[in-house]
Each structure stands twice: as structure tokens, then as C-alpha cells.
Design goal:
about 400 residues, mainly alpha, 20 helices, about 0% strand, globular
């Protein structure tokens, strides 16, 4: 009787794994061809022409300023742009100083194109989604996701400006995808913070989710980048950490429609740049709520939700989040869409589709941008919806995740 019972029970245990049953994808070579075709189509389309590479030019000029012994944080570059990155970035950009823009542009563009599927692949290694698909399936899905994401406004702006945001995002997501037992978990976040300060919120996420060693590693690596900056550039480092990094006038117009943060949205809504009280009060509420939920998710091993909440919170509460900074939300969109499809959650799938439409439409640019001067302070209601597209999406996503999290905690 016992052996018969076991024989009957055995088939019930042998079922097709979720990852094999759910993620039926084209072969790897086909996925590579699809991504390559999307890249080629972008370059041949009107979106692929007349890229200014303005930020890449600033990087190169910053590197040259360091080599020439100039006062980096006192300089103004073409377009009245200031150098706003930490000293480690300036040191890194000295590698660009001896190369012409004509040589740098294709190299940096190719690097960003390679990093886009890599970033999405790292996101698919976050727990718990990593248990639902094989490494090969994740790689193929990342290529397909990158083929679609390439046309989204944050990615397009990153490419045409020659920005480093895909590198920053890749460092963050790679770090979070590493096992908690890894000795160097946190190093990527620490390095990313040394290059661009905003990733520091992910070190806080590690701390709040009780991964104390990883948080300490992130802090240690970041401290090392600061020390290196003082050793190589004592004067510029003193200027940056003493004043420049908290000087909002160096970054740009807060009302610019490219500034997709609560602060920028308030400036456009209230038709004034004097919005610090409103921004700070809202940022505290949004940031505290988002990080509390992110920490809870991280402590239960859900880095997909933890990363999502942390990324959106950081983008929303930052003083400045240019639209190219929102490449950090591209993995969020992919993960959110996958979760909605897996759960057959119609409203979630519709929300992901709406977010994609907003990204593909480039609608944040459907308003006058500083033409005439400070024109974003005089937008009508419909123009405000266009200009605040990412902020509205981010707030809606945080509200949905918070609501679903509370429902699950109450067992409803």
C-alpha cells in the first residue's frame, strides 16, 4: 500500500517548472538580431540624427581642466553649464581629455548600447524573480526588453547627450543582484555614489533592510572615492564638498520640464521657483513611505519590490532628476510588467502599457522649454500633465505598491 501511494503521489510532484512553462522566448541569436535591428532602426530614424552630446563634451572639458590645473568647479562650459559631478568623476574623465569628440561619441554610444541589456539582465537576477527563469532565459528577455526600451525617452536622451546614467544604473542593479553573502556586495553602489551622489539612497536601502555588511562596504568604497579625490585634487575636492554639491544654482533651472522631480513639478504647478517648503514637506512623506516599504520588502527577500520602491523614491525626492536619470526606472517598468502578466493583473498591465506610451511619446517635451525664458512657469493644465508625466507615473506606482503591500499585510 505504501509503495502504491508513493507511486500515485510521485507524478503530482513532477511538474513543469514555472520558468519553463511561462517564459517561452525566441532563441538567443534571434534576440540578438532583434536588438541589433532596433539599434539600427533608431539610428536610421529621425530620432537618431543631430545628437548634441552636450554632457559628453562637458565630461571631456572637465578632464582637460583637471590636466591643465584649472579650478574645475569655478568653470562654466558652453551653454553656461557647470561641472556638477564629484571629484572622482572628474578624475575618471581625464581618460577622455586627449580624444576628440568625433572619436568619443561612437565609443560612448556603443558602451551605452551594450549596457542597456546588461542592466535589464541584472534586474532579472533580483530575488524572487531570479528563481522563476534560467540565466539563458533572463539574457534573452533582457535583449528583447532592451530592443523595446531603446526608444523610450530616458534612454534616447541618455544616448544623445552622451550621459553615463546607464553605467550608474548598471552598477546599482548588479550590486543588488549579488548574493547577500558576497564579500563585496555594496561596492558597486559605493562606486556609483562616488561618481554621482544620488545612488546613496541604495546604501540606505541596504542598511534599512539589515544587510549591514553590504551597507558598510558601500560606505567604505564611497569614502575611498572621497579620499582619492582629496589626495589627487585637494582644492577642487574642498570646493565641491564644502559648497558646490549643495548649490542648486549650479545644476540648472528647477522648472525645466526635463527636471522630473517633485521639486520641478511644484515649480511648474505653482508658477514659481520658491517651492522649497512644499517640496521638502512632500519629499519627507514620499521618501519615508517609499523607503519604509522598500526596507520591509528587502527584509523579506523581495529585492524586486525593494529596488522598485527605492528607485522611484530617489528619483522623485531628489532636488534634480533630469529625464535621463529615469533610465533607472526602465528595469522597474520591465519588472512591473512581468509581475502584472504573471499574476494576470489587468490593471497593472494597463498601467505598464500607459507608462510605456508616455515614454515612447516623449510627451514631457510637448511644452515650451525656456522659450520664452522660464516658459515652464506659465503652463496650462494640459501642459502641466505633459510636463509632469514621469512624476505622476512615479507617484501612482508608489501608491499602487503601497496599497497592494498593505492589503497583503492585512491578509485581505
Amino acid at each position: 500500500m505504501r509503495s502504491a501511494a508513493l507511486a500515485i503521489a510521485k507524478p503530482a510532484r513532477v511538474e513543469i517548472p514555472v520558468r519553463e512553462r511561462t517564459w517561452l522566448l525566441p532563441r538567443g541569436r534571434v534576440c540578438i538580431a532583434i536588438y541589433a535591428g532596433s539599434v539600427a532602426a533608431l539610428f536610421l530614424s529621425p530620432l537618431g540624427h543631430r545628437w548634441p552630446f552636450v554632457d559628453l563634451a562637458v565630461y571631456r572639458l572637465g578632464g582637460q581642466a583637471i590636466l591643465n590645473g584649472a579650478h574645475l568647479y569655478g568653470l562654466r562650459f558652453p551653454g553656461d553649464l557647470a561641472f556638477t559631478y564629484p571629484p572622482l568623476s572628474a578624475l575618471s574623465f581625464t581618460l577622455f581629455a586627449g580624444l576628440s569628440l568625433g572619436m568619443l561619441e561612437p565609443v560612448v554610444t556603443a558602451g551605452s548600447i551594450a549596457l542597456l541589456p546588461l542592466m535589464l539582465g541584472f534586474a532579472l537576477k533580483l530575488a524572487p524573480i531570479s528563481s522563476r527563469m534560467s540565466t539563458d532565459q533572463a539574457a534573452r528577455l533582457a535583449l528583447l526588453g532592451a530592443a523595446a526600451a531603446l526608444w523610450l525617452e530616458p534612454v534616447w536622451t541618455t544616448l544623445r547627450y552622451g550621459q553615463i546614467d546607464l553605467l550608474i544604473a548598471s552598477l546599482i542593479v548588479y550590486d543588488l543582484s549579488r548574493p547577500d553573502a558576497s564579500r563585496w556586495k555594496g561596492a558597486g553602489i559605493g562606486l556609483a555614489t562616488g561618481l554621482k551622489l544620488t545612488p546613496a539612497i541604495f546604501a540606505l536601502y541596504l542598511l534599512l533592510s539589515r544587510r549591514y555588511r553590504a551597507a558598510a562596504v558601500a560606505l567604505g568604497v564611497f569614502a575611498g572615492t572621497v579620499a582619492l579625490g582629496f589626495a589627487a585634487l585637494p582644492g577642487d575636492s574642498g570646493e565641491f564638498w564644502g559648497r558646490a554639491f549643495i548649490d542648486p544654482s549650479r545644476v540648472g533651472r528647477i522648472e525645466n520640464t526635463a527636471n522630473q522631480t517633485l521639486r520641478g513639478a511644484y515649480a511648474r504647478l505653482l508658477h514659481s521657483t520658491n517651492v522649497e517648503i512644499w517640496w521638502l514637506a512632500t519629499a519627507v512623506i514620499v521618501g519615508a513611505t517609499g523607503m519604509l516599504l522598500a526596507a520591509r520588502a528587502g527584509r523579506r527577500g523581495d529585492d524586486v519590490q525593494g529596488f522598485t520602491l527605492c528607485a522611484l523614491s530617489g528619483l522623485l525626492i531628489s532636488p534634480i532628476s533630469w529625464s535621463h536619470h529615469w533610465v533607472l526606472a526602465i528595469p522597474v517598468l520591465l519588472l512591473f510588467a512581468m509581475n502584472a502578466l504573471r499574476e494576470r493583473w489587468l490593471a497593472g498591465a494597463a498601467g505598464a502599457a500607459l507608462a510605456a506610451v508616455i515614454g515612447y511619446s516623449h510627451m514631457i517635451w510637448w511644452v515650451p522649454v525656456n522659450h520664452p525664458a522660464h516658459s515652464e512657469l506659465h503652463l496650462n493644465l494640459l501642459q502641466l500633465v505633459y510636463a509632469d508625466g514621469y512624476v505622476l507615473l512615479g507617484l501612482a506606482a508608489l501608491a499602487v505598491v503601497a496599497w497592494r503591500s498593505s492589503v497583503r499585510r492585512l491578509g485581505c
